[in-house]
Amino acid sequence: MGKALFWTGVFFVVIFITRLLAVHAAKKRQPPPQAPSQANAPVTDSEAMVRCAHCGVHLPRSEASLIEQNTWCTPAHAKLGARPQD
Ligand SMILES: [Zn+2]
User: Which residue has the higher pLDDT, 84 or 40?
Assistant: First the structure.
C-alpha cells in the first residue's frame, strides 16, 4: 500500500514538473504582449485624424476640408456649418 502511494506521488510530481517546463517554454516562445517596434513607432507614420465640425465623424486630415478654422468631411457639411457637440 505504501509503495503504491509513493509511486502515485512520484507520478503526480513528474506531471507537475512537466507542466511547469511546458508553460515556461511557451512563455519563452511567445513575443512580449506589446511589440517594441509598435510602441516606439513615430507618430508621423500614421496620418492625423480630424473631426467633422458638423457630424463629428473622424477622417484622415488629407481627406478633410479645412474651411474657416474647422474641418469638414464634405463641402456640404461645411455649408451647413458647425453643430454644437455635447
Ligand atoms: Zn460631416
Answer: 84
